[in-house]
Amino acid sequence: MNFGMRVRGGLFAALIMFAVPVAATLAGVLASPVAAQTVASIQVEGNRRVEIDTIRSYFKPGPGGRLDQAQIDDGLKALIETGLFQDVKISQTRGGILVTVVENPVIGRVAFEGNKKVKDEQLSAEVQSKPRGTLSRPMVQSDAQRIADIYRHAGRYDVSVNPQIIEQPNNRVDLVFEITEGQKTGVRSVEFVGNVAYSSYRLKDIIKTHESNLLSFLGGGDVYDPDRVEADRDLIRRFYLKHGFADVQVVAALTEYDPQQKGFLVTFKIEEGQQYRVAAVNLESSIPSFDANTLRSFSRVSVGSTYNAEALEKSVEEMQIEASRRGYAFAVVRPRGDRNFENHTVTITYAIDEGPRTYIERINVRGNTRTREYVIRREFDISEGDAYNRALVDRAERRLKNLDYFKSVKIATEPGSSSDRVILNVELEEKSTGDFSVSGGYSTTDGALAEVSVSERNFLGRGLFAKASVTYGQYARGYSLSFVEPYLLDYRVALGLDFYQRQQLANNYIAYGTSTLGFSPRLGFALREDLSLQLRYSIYQQKISLPNYLANCNNNPNNPLLAFNPSPAFANLAGVGPGGSITSGGQTATDASGTGLWCYSDGEASLPVRKELQSGSSLTSAVGYSLDYNTLDNNKNPTDGLLIDFKQDFAGVGGDVSYLKSAFDAKYYTPLVADIVGLIHLQGGILNKVGNKDLRMLDQFQMGPNLVRGFAPNGIGPRDINPFGTMDALGGTKYWGASAELQMPFWFLPKEVGLKGAIYADAGGLSDYQGPTSWAATGEVNVPGCIRPTTNPPTPGTCLGLQYDSGNTVRSSVGVGLIWASPFGPLRFDYAVPLTKGQFDRVQQFKFGGGTSF
After folding, report:
1. Strand blocks (E) in 259-358
2. Strand, helix or coil at 499?
């Protein structure tokens, strides 16, 4: 026992004696080189393209220029993160540190195979792997995922992307993404749960996600997009808040893939709450020198009205901006709503407080690869150094979005160099702003029509609008050039220039053609978001064309002169030469003008038309303005709101004609019950003679189905009723119209079909034709409605010139319509039956019109 213990004790001592010097040697080998290493002592092998100094630069020495183990580890990580190397190893030698690298190959080309629905250019812009760049396998996997995301946002959820790396000589590779696109994944149904105040049919108008149908290939709203569905939740919430439901919650948007239907089922769960009305509107100010009641006129919320969160937001914005204009740059307007849950009312209080004194240190604009920076900055009403005003920032963001130059716009803030400074970061993503379109349409008025146009909303990246278009149709032809500078001399005033040439050919509704060549500069002012003013000047040359057989005035004594006088005493008489007269049965017709009398013997055009023809081209020079008020909820498919347009034009600033023309047009939409929309449409106009110049027929109002449906174009109003002529519409100087219409959906059809029906009643009138005063009959047989011509005819005629119906009759009609918001553009079919009409009016019960761009 003692011997064994002595043996073990001896062995243990021997081991200690041997291990101590070995450990000391190893520690010296491992520790001493590191402690002694500098960056200059690092050796590199395996590099081909990357310089040795570049690799060494990733090792950051500590005090004294020495590298410890932690700094070597940091350098190793930094080299790996560069993505330049497949492998990096660090070893220690007696001479220092050896860094062994295996460089990533260089990408020769990046290609895509199997992609048909997404172009190569779009995919190339999204992937980070680029030709002549180094191959990074993590980056390649990220690119494959990015490509798959692009397809999923386009509704193809069974897409697969397989990257292939093809080895090439000299450490180069080709990167090929093999894509299996799969089938488009659509939305098979959109349902709403919990909606009581508004039907599912109505709510489908609000959201951007639509159900798939036979025509879905022409749009994209039926493709499942989770981002779009999430945005739809906010659209539904804002819609309810706008209509008084202050407690509304869109609890969830549930999506489920149905393998049997091969599409998604989307369900929105809504808790509407109660609808509130405004009980009172109060204003409070904690700023001693500021009277809050002076801002009351800026409130768009009134007592007794339905609570409207959108109007409340705009009120707060305008109040805060007005306070800033008055010198209270840091004033903050905070709305507060005190609800009465029993009475379902809310008391609105605008609290005006002194906000923190914060200034804008800098505005950074990022992502504008094409748009000039000043185009973006001019949408701000604030700049560097100004007081920070959240309302003005929100307005600038909204303006940038409305420009429609960018896919996305986001303005974020970050702290500045001090506590009272803030930095605004404007993050943008550009999008295409050029359009090439081919438009086609057909209407019972204009026939077939086609237009080719090229336009650019952001010309040269300077925010300019330019458009050129050519129109060619069955009865209408022409071209136009347009240019708009939205900021004239850096003011928020839009300057527009229009140059156009139009040709209207004779058709079934009008016997003559017109040709117009004109130029019109205009200035536009946005007085408010819902109120705009336009000032314009127009100068154009216009002339009439007629076939020869409508203006040859052949003398045919065998035609009765019933156009002149129904008395048989004047039948079969020869024409009257200059200064001559006809006497028959004690009645005398004298050519007091000495020019001869016009004839209608073989179907002449109306005297006013031939007078325009003989006068040649006429020049019109006019100044005018338009005042527009627009509160429509949707300009393309309105269901609520008011649209008023009032315009006046004064001709006589030079030129050959002079007049004052005024026109008024108002449309009021209101939702009724069960998705039925009511429309009241009122319109009217008056043309006044100015000075001694006569009113031309071309300047007078011409009306038809645009005033009362059920009548032909130019189908109502004063008309030449000579039975030997073309019985042309002469127009009038006064018109009025009133329409009541109910638009209703076809509930038995899917919403996405876009069909609505309409029933309506129209009434209106056009009267008071005013021809040249020199046509008054003197010394002639008193024939009602017969006006004496004074211009020279090509050949002396056989009868007096113009006998017309005054058209002073109320026209009315009732009808039904079919409105189709088709993928081919808005189409409308109307069938109307006149109830009251003039003796010589022309009826057209069916009317169709529509067209689109593609």
Report:
1. 263-271, 277-285, 331-340, 345-354
2. strand
Sequence-distant (≥ 6) Cβ neighbours of residue 748 within 8 angstroms = none
Whose CA is closest to 101, among 113, 89, 116?
A: 89
| Nearest in space to 744 (alpha carbons), one of 733, 764, 758, 731 | 758
Q: What is the pLDDT of residue 496?
A: 95
Phi, psi of 469 (to 5 degrees): -140, 150
Q: Is the Cα torsion angle 14, 15, 19, 20 positive or negative in sign? A: negative
Question: Which residues partner with 176 through β-bridges?
Answer: 111, 164
d(CA 192, CA 194): 7
**Contact by Cβ (8 Å): 678, 669:** yes
CA distance 150 to 160: 12
Closest CA to 178 of 143, 203, 211, 208: 143
Assess contact for 179 and 149: CB atoms under 8 A: no
C-alpha span between 480 and 264 (Å, rounded): 46
Q: Which of 612, 396, 434 is nearest to 514 (CA)?
A: 612
Q: Residue 455 contacts by C-beta under 8 Å, 6 or more apart in sequence?
A: 434, 435, 437, 465, 466, 467, 468, 469
Per DSSP (E only), the strands in 746-789 are 755-767, 786-787
- pLDDT tens for 280-311 read 999 999 998 899 999 998 998 999 999 999 89
Across 53-62, 286-295, 687-696, least confident range: 53-62
CA distance 393 to 504: 49
Closest CA to 791 of 769, 771, 768: 771
Handedness of CA 253, 257, 261, 262 (dihedral sign): positive
Tokens 């995301």 identify what position?
Answer: 149
- Distance between CA 211 and CA 186 in Å, rounded? 8
Neighbours of 201 (CB within 10 A): 15
- Token pair 């004052």: residue: 660
d(CA 285, CA 331): 10
Structure tokens at 11: 């062995």
- Looking at the DSSP bridge assignments, the partners of residue 706 are none
CB 392 within 8 A of CB 382: yes
Residue 637: C-alpha distances to residues 144, 462, 667, 710 (Å): 41, 32, 13, 24
Backbone angles phi, psi at 215, to 5 degrees: -105, 15
Tokens of 648: 């006046």
Question: pTM score > 0.85 for this model?
Answer: no
Report percent pLDDT > 70 for the chain.
Answer: 82
Can you tell me whether residue 685 is helix, strand or coil?
strand
Whole-angstrom CA distances from 58 to 31, 82, 137, 570 are 22, 10, 21, 114
Q: What dihedral do alpha carbons 210, 212, 217, 220 form, nearest 10°?
A: 20
pLDDT digits (tens, 9 = 90+) for 188-207: 889 999 999 988 888 988 89
- Residue with structure tokens 């409305």? 402
Dihedral sign (CA 296, 299, 302, 303):
negative
pLDDT of residue 850: 60
- At 171 the three-state DSSP class reads coil
427-441, 689-703, 711-725: range with highest mean pLDDT: 689-703
What's the first-to-final CA gap in the chain, in angstroms? Answer: 106
State the burial class of residue 800 (Cβ atoms within 10 Å of its Cβ: 0-12, 13-18, 19+). Answer: buried
- The two tokens of residue 682 are 């009122």
Bridge partner residues of 646 (DSSP) = 627, 664
